[in-house]
Write a structure and sequence with these properties.
The protein is an alpha/beta fold. Strands 2-1-3-4-5-6 form a 6-stranded mixed β-sheet. A hairpin with a 5-residue loop joins strand 4 and strand 5.
Length: about 210
């Protein structure tokens, strides 16, 4: 068991609206006042860590220091086997300053083509999310979610964000981009969730929040 969360307000340390929307959906029903880094005009720190955990902690510590509020921070990305784990912690940077994920997906597909990865078993990948829950007294809890799958081309679907349209999770015939939020996440709170973020938040909910 982790530390139990009893505060009435929770900060999501992100300006990524797609990510914020997913976290809010996954925390539904918990009687929390949720605010975001964008709401409070808090700048996100430069992600200088060399792991998802390090970058998530950087974001959390900066947000807590700026506001005095407990917060959730998340760092996540796509790790492609044939690309030796790339883009990994640089997943957002592959989309450029304008966060053009159509461009990022095309870069990943081109890199796979250059590596001769044409068959599905050569295009294996995992979405990884590291979520941290941090308090103003410096206590931090860490939760990792992971989902395995295959990368398809061309991308399929308009739901989700980021690399979702090219990621086909194992055991399913729809990409994340073709799934509704309910299909991708599972029920509120992340229970039985499919996505990496849902799985990380489910672990957090089990450890730190009372059951719904």
């Amino acid at each position: 068991m982790g530390r139990q969360f009893s505060e009435p307000k929770l900060l999501i340390a992100s300006h990524n609206q797609g990510k914020v929307t997913e976290i809010v959906e996954l925390l539904a029903g918990r009687n929390l006042e949720i605010v975001t880094a964008a709401d409070l005009k808090i700048d996100e720190p430069e992600e200088t860590g060399d792991t998802f955990a390090a970058n998530a902690l950087l974001k959390a510590e900066a947000a807590v220091a700026a506001t005095g509020l407990p917060c959730i921070a998340d760092d996540s990305g796509l790790a492609v086997e044939a690309l030796k784990g790339a883009p990994g912690i640089y997943s957002a940077r592959w989309a450029g300053e304008t966060r053009d994920f159509k461009l990022a997906m095309a870069k990943v597909n081109s890199a796979l083509d250059e590596a001769g990865a044409e068959l599905p078993d050569q295009r294996r990948a995992a979405f990884i999310a590291m979520t941290v829950l941090a308090w103003p007294d410096s206590h931090v809890e860490y939760f990792e979610g992971r989902v395995e799958g295959t990368l398809v081309w061309p991308p399929r679907g308009k739901h989700g964000f980021g690399y979702d349209p090219m990621f086909l999770p194992d055991g399913h015939d729809k990409t994340f981009g073709e799934m509704t939020p309910e299909e991708k996440h599972g029920v509120a709170g992340g229970k039985d969730g499919l996505s990496h973020r849902a799985r990380a938040l489910a672990l957090m909910a089990d450890a730190c929040f009372k059951p719904l």
